[in-house]
Amino acid sequence: MAATIEEKSSAIKATSSTTDSPTSPEKLAERNITISMHQLGVWKLKVAHSKSPFYMNYYRDFSQSYPLFVRLTKDIYNVSPRLFTFYIFSQIWGSIEEALMMHLSGILLRSVENGLKTGSPDVWGIGSAVVARLACSLFAAFMSWQGELALAQLRTRVTTNFNMYLMSARLRVDLPTSKDKSSESEATPDNAWYSLNDIISFFSSILSALSQIALIFHLSRSTGGPLFAILCILRPVVSLLGTRTIWDKAAYGYVDNKDYTRMKSLTEFAGGSYRQDIISGNLGEWIMSEFKKAYDKLTDVTVEHPYSLYDRTETPYRDMMHKAIGDLPMVYCALITIMRPSHFSLTSLAILQQSSTWLGYSLGTVFQSSETFRQAVTNVRKLYEAGNVVNKMSDGAIPYPAPLSLSEKGDAGEMKTEGEKGMGFELKEVTFTYPGSQSTENALSSISLTIKPGQLVVIVGSNGSGKSTLIRILSRLYDPTSGQVLIDNRPSSSYLVGDLHRATAILSQESSIYPLTLAENIGIGYPEKSNDIEMIKKAAEEGGASEFIKKLEAGLETRLDPMQETFSINLYNDKEHPLSKELDKLAKPIDVSGGEKQKVVAARTFMRFYSGKVKFVAVDEPSSALDAEAELHLFQRLIAARQGKTMVFVTHRFGHLTKFADVILCMKGGRLEEMGSHAELMAKQGEYANLYNIQANAFSAGGEAAETPTA
Ligand SMILES: Nc1ncnc2c1ncn2[C@@H]1O[C@H](COP(=O)(O)OP(=O)(O)OP(=O)(O)O)[C@@H](O)[C@H]1O
């Protein structure tokens, strides 16, 4: 079936008179564009055309991206000046290589041609041309080999350097900022390399085109003169400028044909997902007949993608004109041969033709790579923007713990610090909503409370009542939306955030095992001692993890995820192949139970305690996967280590902790519903007593064990 293309091209008159419409005349004028609509087969295509000439767009793009390009070039140069210089040299060589080789071939062939004409070959001329051409070929082969080696090295260095840059940019982002989608960067370390490559390729193709033009003018001196050169250049230029292409325009398309859409729906319907319904409803025949009807109505409308349809012309005249222009150099040659036969060189003509074809190719690459150039510049911009993310939480200037004033020096005159007994907190009317939260209610509302240094605090409350959020506010992972948090009587924002976090140990369900060895997973709690294996073993013991670690073949050196990358070719079906067996032996991820993971995380927290810097311990339900004995063990160890620390526990299980607590905070719907000791809260018979009794009742039929209020 011959595909026919129905194409209606018309500049769209803006349909809406309001400036709200994205295609209102005001908006289009602002961007200096017009929009045309095309029906290409089953597709409707809307294309934006810039009113400025294409070279102005190039100029604008280039001038805007120039500073970025310079910065990227400098950064990559600094990674390895030697490799980068070689890379640029190899690119320049690659751009002019073809023209140079053609030039040398031309010299050789012309010497041969002259020899044939005169009957006495120019031995010196032919010999030197052969040697030059051979040397050029050998140099090209060497450059290509050396280039590949050097480029692999440069690429690895550049990618690793930009990986480090992006890692450090991401590592310094605070929690509220990291949750904000708009601050998330899509940049990858590969962006730097590929962007540089794309930008350099763009300039290389320009250089390649210029070298071809230079060669054409050079050759035309012996055959045809400047007019002949212009005719040779005209063909690729006209062909390029005359080709309608969508690649340099902004456009979108959608399928606008009911019959085609119906055929697609019916094909989807006939697919596997609806098999049972089709069989039970006996719908097979109906589907086929409906498909046939839609197909008949579609007639000859093509379903080809608009990318290829847009480039096609409505009439053959443009193609015919391009072909005719392409033959002009030949016509001109024929005239020269008739009028001035001595000026004619067959060799130059052949080389000129070849050069003209190559020029067309180079110019085509320049135009095609203009879009890649823009994309590359956008990627570079994203890359550098990733390093400019501004944290939402402000950093303070006071170290934590803050040194006591000189008048409060210790007995021996040494500089003492605040927070000796632990971190003290005061919350005044704290309200908090998570950034970007869709909830109509605050996660915390008007919380006012005081936690004295060294107290053991237990937070209880139903799901979603704000317990974990309160812990995050106390740990300064977030700042309140309104209200104030004082730490040791100073606003929390006045301290250096890094110091506050160093003085805080958080043990929560969300804490995870890192992609490191188990020893490092524990040791990282106290980075300065992460190689102290005795300390790590002690922490593992306190966290309850040593027993299960001993059972692992590699013990503390086990990596749960070995991060082993493998690949194989043609081994899938041959499990007995010696290579398959070797591949199977390579390290694979190991899974351990949820409780065992929690024990490793707990061990990390104990390791953190050994630094002596921890003044606040936030324990947010870390025991969900632990059995009763392990949970009791963990809490006992944590409480035994409370000297000099304020401890806040979030728990749903009242048994072990609430009776030890100095203060219990009972949360409900983001508010602090009740606060006091176990006895006080039981006496109130409010929310806390209610939650407590529900649990107590679960252990005794009929609720006999539920406590009655005590004064
Ligand atoms: N990252 C978040 N983004 C948006 N909303 C959140 C986020 N984390 C929690 N919330 C919301 O904040 C409120 C308080 O949640 P929070 O996790 O503090 O409760 P919780 O008392 O710790 O609950 P649970 O007992 O289930 O752990 C809930 O309404 C919750 O949906």
UniProtKB/TrEMBL annotation:
Q: Where is the ABC transporter domain?
A: 425-694
Question: Looking at the record's lineage, which domain of life comes first?
Answer: Eukaryota
Q: Which Gene3D superfamilies match?
A: P-loop containing nucleotide triphosphate hydrolases (3.40.50.300)
Alphabetized SMART domains for the sequence: AAA (SM00382)
- The Low complexity compositionally biased stretches are 11-25
State a single Gene Ontology molecular function: ABC-type oligopeptide transporter activity
Biased amino acid composition, Basic and acidic residues: 1-10
Q: Where is this region: Disordered?
A: 1-26
Pfam families recorded: ABC_tran
What sections of the protein cross the membrane? Answer: none
Q: Which UniProt keywords apply?
A: ATP-binding, Nucleotide-binding
Which PANTHER family does this UniProt record tie to the protein? ATP-BINDING CASSETTE SUB-FAMILY B MEMBER 10, MITOCHONDRIAL (PTHR43394:SF1), ATP-DEPENDENT PERMEASE MDL1, MITOCHONDRIAL (PTHR43394)
Name this polypeptide is given: ABC transporter domain-containing protein
Q: What is the lineage of its organism?
A: Eukaryota, Fungi, Dikarya, Basidiomycota, Agaricomycotina
